């Protein structure tokens, strides 16, 4: 089943034409992460987000006028045996929505993948297109919302509608994932909501997000998951010095340490 790739010539890829339906209602039945990815790519569950992602792709930014935008739901990226999740927010209009890969083709991705390369999770420090050779080892980049939202602000209902994808990914990674690095408050709230739905021991009141905050959760089946807060790698934080490369490295290195400890205790 070919999904197509963004190429030259402008416009956007057509909506996928999978056999049968695609959408979050089917996520619970996905037998692999690849199946979850295909459901994400074909999803049209949120009319506002579908309309916006396609509008952005049709209009395009001047610098990318000759490129074909992805214009679909953007799937997760990374190791299918990941010990660490990196949880973002949603695709960027002219980054992931253009390239079809998480944190690829924008300034946030430049910061994130450079840090993941320095800390041993990424094969290279740059991410410019889906076919640039980037490989993640030990980590998987996910998001609570898989379509670009207007003003980078998904509604609570859109986040809830998209949550079965993240929930199923967590279930499929249950044997390996031990740490979640959460980039920003939106991802923090969304991930905790999904974990609570899955029976994890989320405290009440909900733990507050903050850079460097650690929260260890337990599941009734004996698993544990440590959440690490990290300011989002957006230019709003990195260009002002609120978030430095060393701060990102420190969180990722702590995530690696905790994941390795968790694997030895299994």
From TrEMBL:
Residues spanning the membrane = none
For molecular function, the Gene Ontology terms on record are:
4 iron, 4 sulfur cluster binding; DNA-deoxyinosine glycosylase activity; metal ion binding; uracil DNA N-glycosylase activity
Top-rank taxon, per record: Bacteria
What's a single GO BP term from this record? base-excision repair
Protein's UniProt keywords contain Nucleotide-binding: no
Where is the region Disordered?
Answer: 1-24
Provide the Uracil-DNA glycosylase-like domain boundaries. 75-252
Among SMART domains, the record links this protein to: UDG, UreE_C
List compositional bias (Low complexity) regions by residue number.
Answer: 13-24
Cite the InterPro entries for this sequence: UDG_Type-4/5, UdgB-like, Uracil-DNA_glycosylase-like, Uracil-DNA_glycosylase-like_sf
Q: Where is the composition biased (Gly residues)?
A: 1-12
Keyword Iron included in the entry's annotation: yes
Keywords tagged on the record: 4Fe-4S, DNA damage, DNA repair, Hydrolase, Iron, Iron-sulfur, Metal-binding
Cited PANTHER family: TYPE-5 URACIL-DNA GLYCOSYLASE (PTHR33693)
State the family named in the UniProt similarity comment for this chain: Belongs to the uracil-DNA glycosylase (UDG) superfamily. Type 5 (UDGb) family.
| Name recorded for this polypeptide | Type-5 uracil-DNA glycosylase
Source organism of this protein record: Sanguibacter keddieii (strain ATCC 51767 / DSM 10542 / NCFB 3025 / ST-74)
